[in-house]
Every structure is written in C-alpha cells, then in structure tokens.
Amino acid sequence: MADRIQFRRDIESNWSIYNPILLEGEIGIVLNDPNKYKIGDGIRPWNQLPLRGFNGTLVDNLTSGGRNAALSAEQGKILRETTPEVSETTDDLNIKDPQGYVLAKFRGGHVKTKNFDSAKARTTDDPLSYSVDSSFADLSLEDEERNAIVEFKNGHVKTKNFDSERIIHEVDSPADLEFEDENGNIVMRVNNGHIKTKNFDSSKIDSDIPEYFKVSRFKGKRLAIIGDSISTFSGTMPSGYAIYYPRGDVQSVTQLWWYKVCKKLEMEYTNTAWSGSRVTGAPKGTTAAAGCSDVRINDAGRLGAPDIIICYISCNDWAGNVGIGTWQTADPIVDDSAYTPSQTVSTLREAYSLMLYKLVKKYPAARIFVCTNLDDTARDQNTGYPSNNGAGISTYEWNKNVKEVAEALGARVIDLHACGLNYMNIASYCVDSGLHPNAAGQQIMADFITAQLIANY
Predict the structure, then answer these.
(1) How far is Cα 304 from Cα 298, in angstroms, rounded to an integer?
(2) Is residue 1 part of a domain?
(3) Separation between Cα atoms, residue 24 and residue 295, nearest integer Å
(4) Which of 93, 94, 244, 304 has the highest Cβ tally under 10 A?
(5) Chain centroid to CA 401
(6) Final residue in a domain of this structure, among 181, 206, 231
(7) What is the tens place of the pLDDT at every residue in 343-399?
(8) Per-residue pLDDT tens digits for 131-157
C-alpha cells in the first residue's frame, strides 16, 4: 500500500494563537486559505515566519487600498540574510491595482509597464538620488522554488536583468499607489505615472535622456502610412495606387514628410497612400481607394507587420462634404462582414472607427497615430478664416470628431493642425493654392510629427 503524507494544518486564527515553532523544512498549511502556507526553520515561531502563497510570492501584504504595509524591520533583516540572488524564472506575474489595472508585468526577469520595458532600457553607472522616506524593510517576490524574481531593497527595484539604481527611463501607470512599512514610512510611490523611491524618481530623468537614446528606440521599426495625395510618391506605393507627387519643388521622395521622419528615426517604411482617397467608401471593394477597405488595411502590412501606423487621411472626405455621422464610443463598430463590393460606409465617424478597428485587429502590436487635417484654402467654400467645406463644416469641427474617434479606439492623436501651417500662411507652403505642401511645408510637417512620435511613442 502506498504511503500517504499529510502536512501540518490549521485555520489561520489558531496558527496565530498557538504560534508554534515548525521544524526546519516543515510546512504548515492555512486551512481556510489553502493557497497560503509557511515553512519552518526550527528557530522562529509561526508569527515570525514569512507567509507564502499567492503565486509563490512572499509579498502577501501588497493588498487593495493603494496603501500597502511592507514587511517588518525584523522580516526585512531576515530577507536580507536569507534571500538568494535574483535569478531567472519562467513564471510570469502581473501586479494590479484594486480596479484591476495591470501596473507592471514581470516577464522573463524583466519589468514592463505601460511605457517602460527594462529589456530595452539604457542603464548608467551613475545612480540617481531623490528624496523619499527611508525604510528598514526589504521585500522579495519569489516563485515556488524560492527563486527571487523581484527585490525591493534599499529603496531600489531589482530583478535579474534590471536594477533601478542604474536605470534611466520613464514609466507610466493609470493609478497612484504608496507602499509603506509598518511604521508608516513610504518605501515606494507610483504617482502620476512615475515610480519614486528613496534613490530613484522617474519623473526627474527625462532631461537626462540624451537625444540619441530617444531616437534609437525607433531604429529598425517599420512605419506604415495610411494616407491620401499629400503622402504619395511615385514608386513607393503598390501597383495601381493613384499618385500625386512628384509635383512642384517636391521632386524626390526624400522630401516627403514620412520619408524625413523615417530618416531621422532610422525606421523602415510601408507607404499605402492613395491620391484622392477618402476614409469613407467601400470596405469590401476590390481596390484600396477607401481607407476603411480590407485591401488598404492588408496592404499596410505587405512588407511586414508595422510597428507604428500613421493615419493621415480624411481631407478629401471633408472637401467632398461627407457627413460627420453619429457613431459614439458606446456604439458597435459597423459590421461590414456581409457587405458587397459596391456597398459603402458614407459618414466620417462610422468609416474612421471601422478603419481603426480593423488596424487594431490586424496589427495588435502596432502603435497607431492619427493626424488631424491642415487648413485647406484650395477647396475652402468660406470667404475668409476658417476653412469651411460646402456643408459649412470647419476644419476645427472636423478635426474634433477625428480626435474623438481616434481616442475611443486607443489611437494617439498628432494634432498636425497645430504644426505651424495655418489658414493665413498655408498657400505659401504649397505647390498649389493651399492643399499639397511644397518642400518647405513637408519639412514643417516632418519636424512636427517626428517630435510628436518621440514624445508619445
């Protein structure tokens, strides 16, 4: 007959009352929470042993409420003396706030937050020093084999491949948290999207990041352009796409805004701009004439899945007096699955949301940016400022709707309307009477978009 083994067990309250000393290596199970247990060392009573469980961590006291008690000074001393070096683990962990937002991920020995990934971070030998309350407590996140995945030690975060004492980068979080020890000293803050400890404050390091590092984040990435005539150039789009440039003093692809952006940031490009195209049109059409079409969406990845997508399209919808539409963020996206090739989506909000939805679904790893429209004096139907189309819709009202749809679908807005090309001067920066930028206009656009990508990627 096979032997059966039972671990020592009791409910949590009884463990605390009787406070026994477990033998070295002896396991005590908490019956009313079977995911929690302690391992004896033959010296300390139950109440002094670290509580294990919760996916193998020691940090069971990082709970809800945003103000979390750290381990005691004695427990911190024990951890300093007994915790092994940070090591590799195959386990993945998420740290969430009480609302369920994932604040940080630990993947393969690296820390990753919304805008930060230690696997891609640049480090420095010069530690940063900014004031946060000191604490005697140290924390360690372990896996089930007692391998330390993450340490909070001496005011710093440390994993196998990451140590905040040597880091220069910025992080982001949707929540504010404070981690305290038992005496109320703040060990670490996550505040306004930044991590702050005694010796580290991510909010004060942006000015210390050299320009080459900001730019090097983009090196080798692929930019896809969903655009109209302003972004076309002969030989850069798929066969059959309508072309506008070269025109006027724009005679080389190196003068196009997107080429300049890619050159500055050392990116590759995939151009899917179509002269005269609109975001509205036939989503199941046989050509890429509509921005919301399956053909256009697929063509954006014809040279490989893009890392960044810039949508600069809809000025022809505006000039063609296309209606704004009624789509709201709580509404379902247009279902075009049963559309025939001739059926169209004919309003801005419906077509733009459909285009962005398809891009997100097709390229889930890509960062999507949406550009607002410039003023258009070539097709302005109003006498004087601002630009109005034949339906009386100004570029301001149009752009407001573009922004709302973009933000609802998780795209980041590049407000190109604020780049410096405006109703009063745009004709001087165009190869025509105020629609297609000349070489100087393309340069202004490129500088603005580059700065926006660096700041918001």
Answers:
(1) 10
(2) no
(3) 66
(4) 244
(5) 23
(6) 206
(7) 999 999 999 999 999 999 999 999 999 999 999 999 999 878 889 999 999 999 999
(8) 333 333 455 565 555 565 566 665 566
Q: How confident is the model at residue 416 (pLDDT cuts 50, 70, 90)?
A: very high
pLDDT at 76: 41
Asked whether residue 403 carries a pLDDT value surpassing 90, the answer given is yes
Q: At which of 206, 223, 249 does a domain end?
A: 206
Identify the CA nearest to 163 among candidates 136, 206, 126, 204. 126
Question: What is d(CA 255, CA 258) in angstroms, rounded to the nearest whole number?
Answer: 9
List of residues 6+ apart from 425 with CB closer than 8 A = none
Considering the domain architecture, whether residues 147 and 231 belong to the same structural domain is answered as no
Domain match, 45 and 109 both? no
Handedness of CA 42, 75, 98, 108 (dihedral sign): negative
Q: What is the mean pLDDT of the chain?
A: 79
The label of the residue with tokens 């505006």 reads: 318
Residues 161, 230, single domain; the answer is no
Structure-token match 């009480």, residue found:
98
Residues 367 and 434 in one domain: yes
Question: For residue 389, what are the CA distances in angstroms to 63, 318, 352, 393, 406?
Answer: 56, 7, 19, 6, 22
